[in-house]
Design brief:
single chain, about 120 residues, 5-stranded antiparallel β-sheet, binds adenosine-5'-triphosphate, binds magnesium ion
Length: about 120
């Protein structure tokens, strides 16, 4: 499996990030606090969503306050969005697969998968 694009919205320091045409070997350079570690936490977050559930994944990233800590500050009425496109062999063909997750809050403040 090879990831080709990553699109993130409202995940901590990553308010609106789109990485395209990712090469097989890729280095991320940026000043302190620019979001390098956060970018790699995207994969931990998705793993926890799939292995456990979205609430647990939010608590791992943001502690007890979950969504409120994880959503980008000042954007708490928006959803957290992650889209990953990767190449994968399916039924003998090399296909481009899109995985999309959108997490919002319901009116009671509970996290929900909105897409
Ligand atoms: N909910 C949030 N909204 C906006 N910014 C956030 C949020 N949560 C954390 N941050 C910010 O994210 C930054 C930390 O990002 P991260 O740890 O990914 O940076 P980094 O590039 O790995 O830095 P370093 O080089 O120091 O390791 C901090 O500036 C912190 O204030
Ligand atoms: Mg770091």
């Amino acid at each position: 499996m090879r990831i080709e694009t990553i699109r993130i919205r409202n995940f901590k320091a990553l308010q609106d990030v789109q990485l395209e045409k990712l090469p097989p070997f890729c280095v991320f350079v940026g000043r302190n606090g620019s979001g390098k570690t956060t970018l790699f936490r995207v994969f931990g977050f998705l793993k926890n969503c799939l292995e456990h559930n979205v609430r647990t994944a939010l608590n791992v990233e943001g502690g007890r306050n979950g969504f409120k800590e994880v959503v980008t500050r000042g954007h708490d009425h928006e959803s957290i969005e992650m889209e990953i496109q990767f190449r994968m062999e399916i039924a003998g063909h090399n296909r481009l697969v899109t995985y999309l997750l959108e997490v919002a809050q319901d009116p009671k403040g509970s996290p929900i998968v909105s897409r």
